[in-house]
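Re: beginner question about structure tokens

> Can someone show what the tokenized structure looks like for a real chain? I only ever see the sequence side.

Sure, here's an example I had lying around. Input first:
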Amino acid sequence: MSHDAFVNYAVQFQQTLEDCRELYASSAQQLMEQRPQILGSSPEDYVRVMDDLHKGLLIKVFVSVVVADRRWSKEERVLAEMLFEHIWHKQLQGDQLKDALRHISHEASRLRWHSLLRPFEEIDLLRGRVAELETVVMRLANLIAKADGETTPAESGRVQLIQDEIHTHLHRLPLDSPGQHEAANEARPQAVQKMRNDSVEIRTKIDLKPSAAPSLPAEPSREDRLAAALNELDGLVGMASVKHEVRTMTNFLRVQKEREKAGLPKTNISLHMVFTGNPGTGKTTVARIVGRIFGAMGILQKGHLVETDRSGLVAEYAGQTGPKTNKRINEALDGVLFIDEAYSLVADEGQDAYGDEAVQTLLKRMEDDRDRLVVILAGYPKPLERLLRSNPGLSSRFNRRMNFDDYRASEMGRIFETMCRRNQYDTPPLARAKLALGFDYLYHHRDEHFGNGRLVRNVFEESIRRMANRIAQVEQLTKELLTELQADDITLPGVPEDVWNTLDDPQRLFTVICPSCSDSSPLAQQYLGRRVRCRKCNHKFTADWGEPVS
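And the corresponding structure tokens:
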């Protein structure tokens, strides 16, 4: 490999090390903000734990690849120097470097994949970042394998083995399975304690010195917290009616706060809500943002979100449902209790004494703790409507309803694009066209189990795995190879082959919408993702995603 080519590899390697650190650090920050109740009294300690896990992961990947061919090339030694400086914050050369290489080669085999990946496997909030983790790991593995200009069969096999390990640990948990919220509630505290133990084990094995507690950012003001929550809401794809409703509610509450300050009477309204929509339409995400809005405005003291379902409220034996429901409500006090598939609380037919007890307990606590609790019922529209009609107490308390529509093809494309930007991927026009055609077909043939955003995430994660398999056969990597998702990398299960008949036609038309004047006009496939000019208002914009013209 030429000197210039290796310098390019080294630059990408250094960036990937930093990307891994940032992923684990920002995940810790995300948990501190949205799941503080599971981290105990020292959340800054958890930032340290995640930093240890990222270092252990880097060593595991590095050693797994370089020892595959039983030799250390000079290029791999340079990468090792960079890795050690990243981990130990000091430069190692000569005998020190040799000793460090010998040490980590021995200890890496004792680091377990399950421990290093545990946050993203066992903490439900972080499962949405699995694609980011997989991207970092596979980029790192490919850069190491190809750094010396040749990739041996043993190295290729080891890269594939790493990908298999990632897939085994991070893609085996079903989404929307019965009782998933309750299982997650039980797993979180246990997982956090295990991660603390994993951190101690990693420190012992790779001689990490206890570092000072990381300096945490200053607590933002209420105004900054509110602005951040509203900005996140505005950044969500689609949901125009939901965004309008949340904004209207926020403005109303602002006015009531100002009237209260002025000594004027305020109008009390119920803040309990019903979110209706199919899976993957963003109900949980919006519920979390609503909690943050209420917390920032002082409506709720904390504004955290506690997710549950029937299995988290209803017990199997007489006398246990009341205490079980009260326990989950206590966890949600000063925040939001989000009850998914809420209609399952009461059976459609026949008597359901346990479900009725859970509902009555909930109604009583909503009254007793009306200033400390907001409840959101979520699920499919028709079953939720039946539930509300079945109980006057429920229907009178839940008079604010928001409907989450299924995502159209262009909206699913924009969700895919968001995932690409977050993980530094590009999609050329042909890949965008394939996604648009596939999403459009799946949207028009959907049923109530249509995956929506989760469908997009699954397509994205499978695409980056297929891309990793493709570039594994390429001897020399470029930044473009590492970051471009091609049409052949993309697969959409359930889409028949004849949908792709027009894919190779660069003049295939897609409808795009101008963000300035909202004019919709047909655009040839070859311009998808590129800058164009609106024919009506002359505004220049990126024609990111469109819907096929039939």
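Each token stands for a local structural state, so reading them left to right follows the chain. The first strand starts at residue 273 and ends at 277.
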